Q: What sequence folds into this?
């Protein structure tokens, strides 16, 4: 099975995305135009990304005191990506975009993630520009967003700070009005920013003429105090190099300085930085602070930023899924070609017989089927969520609203599940290779290292779990959980009609009921500290239930397809999930249902 | 909790090893002499190992065409280790040893593994020399083993070959008698060896004057054919530099040549090599082939080698446990000192309050308690197995025989369980650190990379599982499983008397019964291919049951101890294991009991 044929199956047979072309926004599209985009991306990924994946791991970004040096291959990959038009794939045709469904955009981007997850930093630039399209002024869109969509400039998201980490309410970057006329700047109300931003991906490089930082900062009150909490957070555009209202560089360097490169365990093709804003390294226009232009109203910064969070989290989930896929493909190839050992039983007793390829050993098959089940399941989940994004944007008001609510509930799973289980897939890929897998002569150890990031960035596992159990399943009186339950029930009902799938349908119905009961039990005492003590095990069980549903739904389509090894493999991956994975939810839900406080109550000094 | 106080508790309070001093072999020992060894090792590990753990990761072994260059710190660590006497800790006093119980030796070595798992290669040298003490001639012991125990020479184990991997029956290294008088050599029957050996740890270095390779090879029959299968395997001593019967170097280099260094994901302080034997790089004494001296009878090679396997596997398990411990300690320290976020509930609503240390967050506590439960549980398991080794060597005949059989059953768990779960612990240690954990400025990502080796070397996870379900639980009519069951039942019975532990006792009894039933069900069809299709899930369930038993047994002792945060912590780690971990066995045993063939039956072309 190639990734492409899996993608085609999921897009066209399972999600039936051709039907999107009946909608006005996508009316100019057809299966042919979708395929052309997928073809192009698959080719660029194969030619400009995959061959350099190990290179970007060994040649880490270097700071020479002036510039960040990246391998030539990274420059070429960026150029090819920008030239493909993918940066503006989802944008209106009239501003140079393709008006492509997000589902197709996400699928096309999967090829880059599979080829080299860390070369490409397109996602941040697109997210940055999308945010400006949603919340920026007309001139901010024209000057900043459009130049990002064209690939002329790149973008970042500057949220975290060294002292605050995930706790955005504690950020301390300050933004003060830049002079009496600060509101008169055509690029937006002008401020001076001072502070440190940590974990900024692509925060400094020479890939593009300019870098557009989107920065969260607080505007002090008249006494110079910062408003505590997230309510005080505003959003600013802080270009590395200042530009005029026409989008031309003015020749002035803004006071944004690289304070350090983070040296990571993996994902080394993307620069990760600590940036100092307004520290005086590059004094600009005779006053202190980096110049930034406010986006939206004061205090609305976090709301603006979260606008893009769902897509960013789908992007992380897709990256994790594609690392899982890359490891699966590598270990499948190895297992087919590596002769070692003999079959179990009488046939294997004769040492004079030649060894067999290791793919014939049951435990190797188990490790391969687990990977297939994790990676293809994760891909299907991400594409399902991407389809919900399209529904939210182009569906009927009712369908759009349902999609929005469903996305809220599914996003923590879309982010966390592939991060956890496709990392496990990568570990299995190493294991299939034996000692070779532990060497840097084979690609799988890098996939594993690269993938370890995904449970951390864009909201850690713990944050996703709190979001799911503490917010998402409660919001709008539990409507998200009800909608999801209805969709799962609908799949169960269809699967019950198919004798081969009926037992799975039954198992999924029970799992759904167990998750629902655990949700109730978690909140039964009304104390959030009780409920959230086991938010991560809850999320793990929720995630496995969602994936079982995805697999059963995919299985319904696969089951109707023509007899072929591909059909056999898909149905086996589904069956693997139901037999080996879904039963795990019992252990996770038990502590949730009991509101187990073994961990939460342990005093610090007892560890 | 320091590692030392945990070790003391397990050795003296739980395993009551002082009673060993009543045995003749250990009569000269006392708690004071045991403590002195532990003190010395703790100090050397702190001074000579821990400070250089990152250094050996970044300064990988380099081959300059002539020699393998290791950091100076590695030379100093080796020297300090050899001077401590630990290489001969278990040996008779009359040959310069300490006659130390293996339990104390294993505990003392734990400090080195925790400080820097990959600097020390002492384990292989000791294993090599121990094997010679068991199977070598008197002169082989004197010339080779004693010079290894003194640290003058180092040792290796050369089993794998590039084409054979775990399948030792397929090794192709040939050993032919070296001349008509080959049997007359005082060092043992002399052969000429030709072949390639892969994955040889410490296969080339300048730490010692000489390197003594123990090599598995096949002696061809009169037609020059190798006997297929493991029956044809013999064992040879192949010194890097030839020596005379007095143990002096003769000045001749033997024909053992470094063919390549493996570049690993972690564990980089230890050289891992591909060695060519008898390829003609260093022609010696006018004939082709590397000179080797046979140990034991022809065809007995694998049996001799397996003599040392149990201790080697306990060593791997201990290494994995100590990496888990190192990550736990690092993340506990980080969690205590990193302020971020606020409590859940009303107290956390006021953003003007200062952030709290992250150790106060329930999910961080969960990640810490899981690590504690994995790492301390694994340490207890390894020490228990080490205690069985002492019983096997110095117990009454009946007790020794029971210990031998129990060790056979427990060894796959002692090897595999820490390799899997202390790797998970290291992943949690990264997660506690957030983004910092993913950088090379903190030690945890290295622990995680180092630990990934342990599921691979000294028999992969899959091999351990086949050994457990395919051999160990069946041998001697299931006596191993019966003995283990009796010990578990004895712990259950005692715990039932303690109200606080009674529920755990009940859960453990049920788990034991479930494992027993699954063992029966796995073999019910009589077809090994049915039983072994799910050998790994079986081993996972078996391992979790064993660890639950270990924790309950430790908990019984902890429960009787004085009220103190340490007692609270131990009982919480036990409770964590029973609430969060043991329930996982249901999912694993289900596929075993059903003899699920979803994976085993999938045709190759369907993946």
A:
């Amino acid at each position: 099975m190639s990734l492409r044929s899996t993608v085609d199956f999921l897009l066209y047979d399972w999600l039936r995305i051709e039907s999107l072309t009946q909608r006005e926004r996508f009316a100019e599209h057809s299966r042919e135009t979708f395929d052309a985009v997928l073809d192009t991306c698959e080719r660029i990924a194969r030619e400009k990304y995959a061959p350099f994946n190990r290179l970007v791991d060994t040649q880490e970004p270097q700071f020479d005191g002036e510039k960040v040096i990246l391998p030539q291959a990274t420059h070429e990959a960026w150029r090819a990506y920008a030239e493909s038009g993918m940066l503006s794939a989802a944008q209106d045709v009239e501003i140079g975009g393709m008006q492509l469904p997000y589902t197709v955009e996400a699928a096309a981007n999967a090829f880059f993630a599979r080829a080299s997850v860390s070369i490409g930093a397109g996602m941040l630039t697109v997210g940055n520009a999308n945010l400006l399209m949603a919340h920026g002024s007309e001139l901010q869109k024209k000057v900043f967003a459009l130049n990002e969509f064209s690939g002329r400039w790149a973008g970042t998201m500057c949220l975290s700070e060294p002292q605050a980490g995930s706790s955005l309410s504690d950020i301390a970057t300050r933004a003060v009005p830049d002079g009496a006329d600060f509101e008169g700047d055509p690029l937006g109300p002008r401020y001076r920013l001072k502070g440190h931003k940590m974990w900024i991906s692509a925060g400094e490089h020479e890939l593009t003429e300019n870098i557009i930082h989107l920065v969260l900062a607080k505007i002090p009150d008249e006494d110079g105090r910062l408003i505590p909490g997230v309510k005080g957070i505003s959003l600013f555009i802080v270009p590395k190099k200042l530009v005029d209202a026409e989008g031309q560089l003015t020749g002035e360097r803004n006071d944004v300085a690289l304070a350090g490169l983070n040296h990571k365990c993996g994902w080394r093709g993307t620069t990760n930085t600590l940036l100092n804003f307004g520290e005086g390294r590059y004094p600009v226009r005779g006053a202190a602070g980096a110049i930034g232009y406010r986006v939206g109203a004061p205090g609305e910064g976090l709301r603006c930023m979260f606008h893009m969070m769902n897509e960013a989290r789908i992007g992380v989930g897709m990256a994790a899924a594609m690392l899982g896929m890359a490891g699966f493909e590598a270990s499948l190839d190895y297992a087919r070609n590596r002769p070692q050992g003999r079959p179990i039983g009488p046939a294997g007793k004769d040492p004079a017989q030649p060894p067999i390829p290791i793919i014939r050993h049951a435990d190797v098959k188990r490790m391969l089927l687990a990977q297939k089940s994790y990676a293809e399941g994760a891909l299907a989940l991400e594409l399902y969520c991407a389809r919900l994004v399209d529904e939210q944007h182009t569906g009927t008001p009712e369908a759009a609203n349902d999609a929005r609510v469903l996305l809220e509930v599914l996003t923590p799973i879309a982010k966390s599940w592939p991060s956890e289980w496709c990392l496990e897939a990568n570990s299995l890929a190493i294991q299939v290779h034996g000692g070779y897998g532990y060497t840097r002569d084979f690609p799988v150890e890098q996939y594993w290292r690269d993938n370890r990031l995904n449970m951390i960035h864009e909201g850690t596992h713990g944050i996703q779990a709190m979001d799911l159990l503490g917010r998402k399943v409660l919001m709008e009186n539990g409507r998200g959980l009800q909608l999801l339950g209805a969709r799962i029930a609908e799949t169960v009902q269809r699967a019950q009609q198919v004798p081969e799938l009926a037992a799975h349908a039954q198992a999924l119905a029970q799992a759904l009921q167990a998750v629902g009961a655990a949700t109730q039990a978690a909140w039964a005492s009304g104390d959030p500290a009780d409920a959230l003590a086991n938010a991560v095990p809850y999320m793990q069980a929720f995630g496995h239930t969602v994936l079982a549903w995805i697999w059963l739904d995919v299985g319904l389509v696969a089951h109707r397809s023509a007899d072929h090894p591909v059909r056999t493999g898909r149905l086996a991956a589904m069956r693997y999930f139901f037999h080996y994975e879904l039963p795990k939810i019992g252990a996770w839900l038990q502590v949730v249902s009991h509101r187990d406080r073994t961990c939460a109550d342990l005093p610090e000094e007892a560890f």
